[in-house]
Amino acid sequence: MKKNRSSIRFAMLVAGLMIAGLARADAVTDNAKALLDKGEAKAAYALLEPLEPQRAGDPEYDFLLGLAALEIGKNTNAVFALERVLAVDPNHARPRAEIARAYAALGELATAKQEFEAAKRQGVPPEVANTIDRLVAAIEPVEDKGRTTLRGFVEGTVGHDSNVNAATSDRSVSVPAFGGFVFPLAPGAYSRSDTFTTVAGGFGLRHPFSQEWSLTAGASASKRMNTDIDKFDTGSADAYLGMVRTYGKNVFSATLQYNQFWVDNDRYREAAGFTTQWQHNYSANTQTSLYIQYAGLHYMTQEVRNTDRFVIGANFAHALPGFKTVTYGGAYIGEEVETNGRFPQFGHRLVGARIGAQHEFRQNMTFFANLAYEHRNYGANDPLFLKTRNDNQWYAGLGMAWKPARDWVVTPQYQYTRTDSNLPLNEYSREVVSVTVRRSTCSKRMPGV
Question: How does DSSP classify residue 449?
Fold first, then answer.
């Protein structure tokens, strides 16, 4: 009898130890999940990883381990853990989507794309399906690096401009060089409003020579026609040719650029120069860049205004979790150096900054807003106003990009510009409301095909 009681006590002890072990196991996964929910993936991985020899094969444990590993960049470990989950439950969409993310981080883009599409077919909530579509769309341009890609577009815009000639609203101005005499301004020298129509089109070519080197080229043109004030109709043409080198997370580019600008069908100004840039991709959702620009500005009928423009700047872009919201910004400094030393009032130093954000409210609808500022300090006194010009220019934009169908984008937007200057002729404000409809096309061809 005593022996039986001892056996019962021993069995109860073993059972108690097993139950306690299970409770601890549940506590581990519960704590890990709580840490992941708080964004503390590193702590979750440190909690889970030592238990892998004992707990590998438990789908809940493996999923949390794989997710924690993925969030801290241990992508190979994430694949191993998530493969164990899918071996037990191949129809579980969430682990399949996460393993696709891991494959994408490892550079196995074709496999990542297949896994994303498989996860979507298994049935996921609409918001998850939208996220998968965005990730697949992000993969496709990377896949295009191995193909010769030709992209083109045509677009049309209609709108209203409160100041088509970017001029002061004053009808007269006092000129100190003439003893403060007040001169009335001609109609073209003060602000005029009008409706307008713009047509534009262009193309861009990318041809890879290898996994690292690519050639880029392109051209575009636009023509803006005011309804009534056609003397301020404008047009432009742009062309570029460059080389791009991709090295790990770094992208280096050098591009030759040319621009021709018309006013009232007459050549007004041309610009020729180059841009060099270094872009670093910290992760799938964060990148920064540094750039240097040069342009020689030549005015066809006012050569005394010719300058050499130099700008150096930095930009950043960051996508928030879920990739629905993207923030971006940048800052720059520069100088326009007059080519004719007898007219230093046309040269100036400049400093500026810009910020912006866009948010995808629906799969086919993105809202955006941006703000920019530039300060310009000129090189000498203006001969008419007898003081050195200083400008502070603000720009704000707000709009929406709507994709009603594949390759089509409709963009209504509002733009506001204000320039405060100590010279009255250069002070103005401007509001533009417009709607643009764009149709894009893309042709891809593998090298040698």
Answer: -
In a 3-state reduction of DSSP, which class is residue 401? strand
Amino acid at 316: F
pLDDT-derived band at 16, boundaries 50, 70, 90 = very low
Separation of alpha carbons 158 and 198, rounded Å:
6
pLDDT of residue 154: 96
Rounded Cα–Cα distance for residues 446 and 449 (Å): 6
Predicted pLDDT of residue 101: 81
Residues whose CB falls within 8 Å of the CB of residue 53, separated by 6 or more in sequence, listed in order: none
What CA–CA distance (Å, rounded) separates 102 from 98? 6
Q: What is the pTM of this model?
A: 0.70
Name residue, tokens 């191949």: 90
What 3-state class would DSSP assign to 88? helix
225 and 195 in contact (C-beta within 8 Å)?
no
Instruction: Indicate if the pLDDT at residue 395 is higher than 90.
Output: yes
Nearest to 334 by CA among 386, 374, 281: 374
Cβ-count burial 53-89 (b if 16+ within 10 Å, e if not): eebeebeebbbbbbbbbbbeebbebbbbbbebbbeee
Model confidence over 290-330: pLDDT tens digits? 999 999 999 998 899 999 999 999 999 998 876 688 999 99
Chain CA centroid to CA 46, Å: 35
Which residues lie closer than 8 Å to 194 by C-beta, 6 or more apart? 160, 161, 164, 226, 227, 228, 229, 232
Lookup: tokens for 373? 């500022």
Measuring CA to CA, which residue among 340, 345, 418 is closest to residue 377?
345
What are the angstrom distances between the C-alpha of 344 and each of 61, 351, 375, 387, 439? 71, 19, 18, 13, 45
Q: Which two tokens stand for residue 190?
A: 């003060």
DSSP-derived secondary structure letter, 59: H
Residue 19: band (very low, low, confident or very high) from pLDDT cuts 50, 70, 90: very low
- Structure tokens of 248? 């790990």
| Residue 356, CA distances (Å) to 264, 283, 297, 315 in order | 33, 20, 28, 11
Q: Are strands 428-445 and 365-381 parallel, antiparallel or unpaired?
A: unpaired
pLDDT-based confidence at residue 5 (cuts at 50, 70, 90): very low
Give CA–CA dist 427/190, Å, rounded: 10
**In contact, 171 and 190? CB cutoff 8 Å:** yes
Q: What is the mean pLDDT of the chain?
A: 85
Rounded average pLDDT over 80-105: 81
Residue 190, pLDDT above cutoff 90: no
**Sign of the four-CA dihedral 95, 101, 106, 112:** positive
